[in-house]
Specification:
- By secondary structure, this protein is α+β, with helices and mostly antiparallel strands.
- The chain has one domain.
- It contains two helices and six strands.
- A three-stranded antiparallel β-sheet has the order 1-2-3, with no helix packed on it. It has a three-stranded antiparallel β-sheet with strand order 4-5-6, with helices on one face.
- Strand 5 and strand 6 form a beta hairpin.
- The termini are far apart.
Length: 105
């Protein structure tokens, strides 16, 4: 599980907190805030596959824009239907994307 967090007593018992950027939020409040996610879009079999690595949620579309919009819908549905425990388990706050040079052959 990624990210930094702490457990605090919110008056109703302990709850998990996360720090994303400079913004602290309770997992239960996560859907109430706007959050930027990383999107990787690849051309695949005549269409495009879009992946959000922070949540391991993917979608596809005939165009880049359609794949991106379908991924937005998939992420929104994930947050609407996933339990707080599943969100906490799958959310990776630190994702690093870079390019590598590798000698081949």
């Amino acid at each position: 599980m990624g990210g930094t967090g702490s457990r605090i007593d919110n008056g109703a018992g302990f709850c998990d907190n996360r720090l994303v950027g400079n913004e602290r939020y309770e997992i239960g409040d996560y859907m109430k805030k706007r959050h930027a996610f990383t999107v990787i879009i690849e051309h695949e079999d005549g269409g495009y596959c879009a992946l959000c690595p922070e949540l391991d949620v993917a979608s596809q579309g005939d165009t880049v824009e359609q794949a991106k919009n379908n991924l937005i819908e998939a992420i929104e549905l994930f947050f609407e239907t996933a339990s707080e425990a599943e969100i906490k388990e799958r959310l990776h706050d630190e994702v690093f994307i870079t390019r590598l040079e590798v000698a081949v052959g």
